[in-house]
Amino acid sequence: MDILIESERRRSQLDFVASGRDVEVGDARECPLPVEELRTLDGHHPAVRAVFDGGLTAVVYKVHASGRDWAVKRARTPCLVQGPDGQTSFLNELQRRAELAALKAQPGGRARFAGIVDTVYGSLRHGIIVSPWIDGELLRTWDERRLRQVFDTGRELVRAGFFEWDFCPGNLMDDGRQVWLFDFGYMYRFDPLCQFNSAGDGSAAPQCHLAERIESRHAFGAWLDLPEAEALEAFRREKTIALATYHRLREELAVDGATTTVLGWLDAITATWQAGLAGDLRALWLCEGWRSHTIDLEDDLHGQTCTPNTLRRVDWLLDALRANHALLAARGALLGDDAGQPADALLARYAAKRREAEGYQVRRAA
After folding, report:
1. Cα separation of 218 and 226, whole Å?
2. Residue 190's closest CA among 312, 9, 1?
3. What is the pLDDT of residues 253-286, one digit of tens each?
4. InterPro entries in the record, alphabetically (predicted)?
5. What percent of the chain has pLDDT over 70?
6. CA 229, CA 282: separation in Å to the nearest integer?
7. Domain range summary for the chain, segments of one domain joined by +
8. How, if at all, do strands 179-181 and 137-138 pair?
9. Architecture of domain 5-279
């Protein structure tokens, strides 16, 4: 029987939190202020320049000390995300930061993981993570440089056995030269040579992969702001870069010894993209959009972490059903309980999901 890596991880993480043990990363002596002072920061502290409290699992403080700026992340208590993944996300982030710091310390590691933020210090017991401040802006829109850098970072993570589930706008920062991934609360370990991702036993969710995560958690949400013609052009640019990334990843994993199952899975994905780029791009956009918006919707409903953007995603799905149900059905985009259902039934189902999302709108703490 295959090991359910997802359930094992959740059980192990919950047990670790319950044990009261600490996880420390880095050196407390490198912190800009004493740890006891950092763990009790608020907006009135003289070193605090800004407070970013929009996150569901932590609050981030911009701190100026020792002649420079620092990012101090402090865990929310309680966490605003329901379920074990949210409740253990701070622990998970500390574990990943320790592993990534070790990889970056290896020869060539800094070049491979150029888009991964450094960690100065972190502690589960103290509920803080200290990093250098990134002077830039959250990544809201995409251009070729940004796409290439995020896909390059993601490819290196996959090859090293890290699956990042949350490439959301709040986790990516662009300083004008480099896009940085700076939150690792939903990055989990897996074996890329024989598993697709970290869900279930590693093969339970083949629809989830690097490009899908970037599209579902970020790109398709951003493209809601664009007219369809502009969204299609942005989609073409992203898919072209994704295709080149996957060809390289496939070659690297083959050299590393990946199974024929994993290589065949990647081949099937890239074949679909190549056909869409050479033929009916809009049909590919609709099918991939349906996949991404439904996945993100279900994730928000499951975690009870819906936002106004969740409602916009449901509205996109309802519009797609009204105008393109036959195309989605013919191309196999309607999966699971949606497969084989007539348009009227799906319209009723997703209208109900919209009402559910309205009831789960997150009320962030002040």
Report:
1. 14
2. 9
3. 999 999 999 999 999 999 999 999 999 999 999 9
4. Kinase-like_dom_sf (IPR011009)
5. 98
6. 10
7. 5-279
8. unpaired
9. Orthogonal Bundle (1.10)
